Amino acid sequence: MTDPTLMTDLARLDFAWITTMHILYPPLTIGLASFLLYSEWRWLKTDNDEWYRLTRFFEKLFIINFGAGVATGVTMEMSFGILFAPFSQAAGPFFGNILGYETITAFMYEAGFIGLMIFGWGKISKKMHIFATFNVAFSSMLSAMWILVANSWMQSPTGVHLEKGLFLVDDWTAAIFNPNFLTAFPHMFIAAIEIGLFFVAGISAWMIYKNRHAQMFMRTLTASLMALVIVAPLQVYIGDELGRTVAEHDPAALAAMEGHWHTYNADGTPNTSWNLIAWPDEEKGTNTFQIGIPHVLSLLEDHKWVSTVKGLDQFKPEDRPPVLAPFYAFRIMVAAGGILMLVAFWALYLRYKGKFNALELQRRPWFLRAVIFSAILPYIAIWTGWWTREIARQPWLVHGMMRTSEGVSQMSIPAEIAWFIGFVIFDMVVWIGAWYFFSKVVRRGPDMQEEIIHGIQGDGLHLGQLPDRDAPEGRPLFERPAI
Amino acid sequence: MQHIMDITHGYQWLTFIWWILIGLFVVLYIILDGADLGSGIYSLFNSDSEERGAIMASMAGTWDANETWLVVAGGAIFGTFPLAYGSLFHYLMIPLMVVLWGIIIRAVSLEFHHYSSRSRTIWDWGFGIGSLVTTFGAGVCLGAFLQGFEMTTGQVPTFGGGALDFLTPFSILTGFTAVIAASLAGGAYLRARFDRSTEIYAKALKWTDLMFYLALVAIMITVVWTFIQFSWARDKWIGPYWWAYVIAGAIVLFATWSMRKASREQRDITAMIWLASIVFINFATMMATLYPWFVPGTMTIYDAANPSNSLGAFSYAMLGFVPVMLSYNFYQAWVFRARLHKLAGYAH
């Protein structure tokens, strides 16, 4: 007989692994596609060759990232049915619909234009090309939106009722625009923009640091960091809003994120202490050790000096989420977001002082180093943010309606382990490969010699121009074969 | 909301339409990605690294969209037949897992190959082996699907068998058949894609000749085996509408003969289109044989479908996108239609 707890935990681990290794790529795809749209637009607008070269350079990185995202993403669409079959069946009337919308209006939409965007240079007109870029940026955002609709609905399942084991939809508008979605989607979307901008900023800073095409990369460094002056604080603000949404709709999750066990102090007043660090003891239902600051918790969650914030003692032990992982993951995410905001402000300060040019920045290597380092932080923030979100909503799969243990497939332990090992190997190949080729493309730098492609070249049909080994002297490198 | 109510009156029809559309997505996947996968399998037998690179370059602009039809089929099944999605995919856990590994390796090989120098051989092999594994796994999935599976009893019945239930001589046979059929499609694709004066064209010519006869044998065995093993198929084929299946069979034979003729006369695109129509007709015949089963012996399409409200909403939101999807996919394929020169590489 299979141990049901072990089976559930392994299924969670299996799913957690593939999602953790998938979320590395799509946010960058979304953010970078939007940035490419901007830089291609700058090129068309100014006809400045540097914008063209920058676009083509970042596009190479985009392709690698996109390939890795597709490779790990196909798995996701199948895994709900494989690992969480009873959930997929029960939630099909809503959740399945949304995933279906995602594949048809976003996944396929993106695939239908990505080839044109990447390989269409010289085969389609400039206008058609930027249209393709726009469609890739827009469809990848749509994809994130549908995924967040589905995920948020599991956190705050409005508009449905359970009948004969199925989640039947009563109100589509309420289910799609569920309370959690309204703040979680902006939070994820801005995260994608932020990772895209810091990725561009980090690579541009590295180029300036190494004094390679420093003037040219000032364009992308300025554009990305100045955008971040708005984007980074906006993300902190939306994050705070999301925290309050979670406090309202899933107070147990919030209490776990804050390590907040006791609703009231021993003297009967509301416990408003916010734990900077703590070590939770889930058996005893308290922290064995904590450093708390009074009033901060009520200020954060309610924007009031004193208010009652539900602690974990208000929930039965079987309804409590794990505390340790959400508590620390949440703090790491917040710290990363804060540092990113400070880096953006540092850039603004330098600009205000009139020091924002290649020469001055090269005299401030610590600033450039900080920006390069900042390219890693959004990855950490996205990972820890999602871990917080997914662990803190346990033990529920659909909040208050279906437990994780009820939604999991009845799998054999060896099959679950085989899944885990296999995906660890394959996803690591993708990850190592993607980052290896990122660094290779960055080290090689932009191609400054290549001829600039203005719209359709020749008859628009050429597919390659590598030299032919056997070609006799004097023949052109490429001859269009007869069709 | 009123529109959604109106549309639900045709609930039975909608169920049927979505079943047909999902069939269309699956057959599009088989035809389009079958060619890409098959040329990947062929690349395992080609020792010229530059030719293997050219094969990958030939599908650079389109493989992602071709592969995505599989995801669209999966998403549409989840959206319209969630009971089948949950139970069928759970039943197929192990072969699907293998397919997914193959897809991962093929996808990154296609992307990384272009940027690699020292590691190029790794991605060459990754592309070939990924294609082979994906095709074999998908064939096993199809065979296992035709066998049906055990369900639990209860309010929402789900898959109730073991992890290895899929593994039978029949599903292994369909795995091999898929590899052979894809190899034929891959050969036909390469011949339509490369210039006739190239070496790779000449090699593909020999390859398709061999694969044609192998495929003929493999498909015959599969059909006879299906007839013997599955009563749901036998009853249809010798039932009151036997003549329809005879006509379908005759059309397939005619198309096979036409494909062979076009292939011998080096009308490569015509041959490829005949091959696609053979796949299409075979698949349509399979769907007709299956009806009303979604999974034969396990659940009918009407039992697997979403409740009417959800199916109505799905149709209302998505039906219009199907022709849009088809048209931009066609446009993308059209842009990349040119034949390739021998050593063509990526142009970006």
What would your notes on this structure say?
- With 483 residues, chain A is mainly alpha-helical.
- Chain A is 67% helix and 6% strand.
- Chain A has one domain.
- Chain A is built from 16 helices and 6 strands.
- In chain A, strands 1-2 form a two-stranded antiparallel ribbon.
- In chain A, strand 1 and strand 2 (166-169) form a beta hairpin.
- The longest helix of chain A has 36 residues, at 214-249.
- Chain B has 15 helices and 2 strands.
- Chain B starts with a helix and ends in a 13-residue tail after the last helix.
- Chain B has helices at residues 2-8, 11-43, 49-58, 63-80, 82-91, 93-113, 120-147, 169-193, 199-229, 231-237, 242-264, 268-290, 301-304, 308-318, 321-335, and strands at 293-295, 299-300.
- By secondary structure, chain B is mainly alpha-helical.
- Chain B has one domain.
- Chain B is globular.
- At the A-B interface, helix 3, helix 4, strand 2 and helix 16 of A face helix 3, helix 4, helix 5, helix 6 and helix 14 of B.
Largest interface: A-B, 97 and 88 residues
Distance between the termini of chain B: 47 Å
- Shape annotation of chain B: globular
| Helical content of chain A (DSSP H or I, runs of 4+) | 55-70%
Radius of gyration of chain A, taken over Cα atoms and rounded to an integer in Å: 25 Å
In total, the number of strands of chain B is 2
Shape of chain A from CA axes?
globular
Summed over residues and divided by their number, the pLDDT of chain A gives a mean of 85
As residue ranges, the low-confidence spans of chain A are 464-483
Total individual domains of chain B: 1
Can you summarize the main beta sheet of chain A?
2 strands, antiparallel
The oligomeric state is heterodimer
Could you say which structural class the secondary elements and strand pairing of chain B correspond to? mainly alpha
